[in-house]
Design a protein that fits this description.
With about 575 residues, the protein is an alpha/beta fold. It is about 60% helix and about 10% strand. The strands form 2 sheets. It has a 5-stranded mixed beta sheet, sandwiched between helices. α4 (about 65-110) crosses α7.
Amino acid sequence: MERERVLAAAREKYRNKKDIIWGGCKLSFFPDTTKETAQKRRKFNERHFSSLHPNIEQEFPKGTELRKNKLVALKSQAEKQVQFFQKFMKHSETVTLASYQLAWNIARAKKPYNEGDFIKKCLIDAFEILAPGDDKLKRSVSDVQLSRHSVKRRISDINTAVESQLHSDLQACEYFSVALDESCDIQDKPQLAIFARSVSNECMIKEELLDIVTLKDRTRGIDVKEAMMAAFAKANLPIPKLTAIATDGAPAMIGSVNGLVGLCKADQTFPDFWNFHCIIHREQLVSKSLNLNNAMKPVMEIVNYIRTHALNHRQFRNLIAELDQGLPGDLPLHCTVRWLSKSKVFSRFFELLDAVKLFMEEKDKDYPELSDLEWIMDLAFSVDMLCHLDRLNLTLQASEQVTSAALKKKRDRYATLVANLHESFVTRFCDLQLKRPQITFLVNPFNAETDCLKAPLVTDEAAAELEMIDLCEEDQLKAVLREGTVEFWKSVPIEKYPNIKRAALKILSMFGSTYVCESVFSTLKHVKSKHRSVLSDTHLKELLRVATTEYKPDLKRIVQDKECQKSH
């Protein structure tokens, strides 16, 4: 505290004037502003000398070189004092800026707070080798503040800056939508992730973590709505600009009465908005309609037998290495929760089918399916369907081994399965099929129907229809469409086409899935692991925002607002 008080006094002392000490007294050299002020200050110094330093005139007579030299020496002393404090302040600001930069890197890499001490030690050791004679550089590295508490404060400051910038952008945006999902952390606390997707008049789209809220007790629709409204109030969001809400398929989210969507639609403060059930979740539900248990069950049993036993796993990998046929090195482990991994497991299993068959024979495990041609065809069909469902577009290897005659026998069954799959798609995505004209309008308005825009996308349907007719005659804009959807709508003048431009902005602002929420939950599992399970909710929120944000904080501005000190 004493050090801070002295530094503050020194900054105030040398801010607007230059002081020098002569005989224990202070002489002031002010920058000349007006003649009157200069005369007053000159008289003050003269009176000071005559009353407290009567021997000055004798020791340093006026007009002599001795007096001039003394004044030059005193002024030089004052300049050195000012330069010393300025240099000290500049060095403190520099090492503080370096501290913020390293804290930013630590948070982006999802590392713990105490990683700063490790980084500092590594830097010192590196410079001991690379620049053994550069003591100034070593001192600068030692002065960087990277203790656990310092890194924590730095990340909190960066989070505050990012959050402030996010709130400003959301308040100024044209439209926005939100995506919500809930998951439990390592302490079984339900964490509700709320993401916001905003679009500006210039079609600048941003997706950012608005908030992550710990639901203290239950996860009902009313609890989720209260948490979302608290996040809206904190960010001072203009709710009338809300265009859509994307959630998973849980009843607490999409329930028409007590779910989040139903409660929001019944709330008069909310505008008329679209609600989306996450497309990725729907695909997972559709994949369950494939009745291929005869192929899936043996695959899962064999994969678990190999991967869940360390000895079997090592022996299987050694077998693959001995075969040396350019095969993949291992089988991935299937996790039921991470359903997207199923296609990867099946695809890799199909590639390693010969190696798996050989390994199971060595282990005296009887799986006749591995030699059954019909079962292998079912497996190939499963792999193909799962890869298409997961949009991986993988090409099956060794597919030529399936004969035409065998395919003919299986054709009718596979056709029925594909037909059932198509029917499941139609059922699960029927609400999106109703919105197909509006989606076509966004992607290619020249092929869309002129009357496709309805509420809540537009308020004046007749005016929007006339604008659609005029837009179809814009040959220059047709050429811009080849550059992409967003680039096209950037080029559409809102002054000429206000209704359809705002309709396009509304659709652009909408989430189609809760993928961003799933992504942040993966980050949450990494940040709040068993080694950091006692992280507070506030610190967890800060770490997740800094780790996932697309904003680039102005660290120099943050440093300018701080009382900079080097590491002790």
